[in-house]
Design a protein that fits this description.
By secondary structure, the chain is mainly α. It is about 75% helix and about 0% strand. The longest helix is centred in the last third of the chain and has 32 residues, at about 65-95.
Length: about 100
């Protein structure tokens, strides 16, 4: 059975922000929110990872690799369509002989 978190996403965000801001010590934040030091580090590390992934790329904009792959898929779809047309044409010309 899935474990239910005692914190909402907004509360987790606030804890992570408090840890990153450094206004209170790590121990003070753990006492304030009644959390373990390990859990606090996990929240902070997850927040930093998410920030690293998002920095430098506007929301909704794909990265260069994704754009290249999307173009490759479009090219392959076009090729498959062209081949299907060629096969259909060859079948018709063969049937009329």
């Amino acid at each position: 059975m899935a474990r239910v978190s005692k914190f909402t996403d907004e509360q987790k965000l606030q804890i992570a922000l408090d840890l990153l801001a450094g206004k209170l010590s790590h121990a003070e934040i753990c006492r304030k929110y009644d959390i373990s030091s390990t859990y606090a580090y996990k929240l902070k590390d997850r927040a930093v990872d998410i920030l690293r992934q998002g920095i430098g790329r506007p929301a909704g904009r794909t990265d260069a690799k994704t754009e290249r792959l999307a173009k490759r898929v479009a090219d392959l779809e076009q090729l498959a369509g062209d081949q299907a047309l060629a096969i259909r044409y060859l079948k018709k010309t063969r049937d009329h002989e």
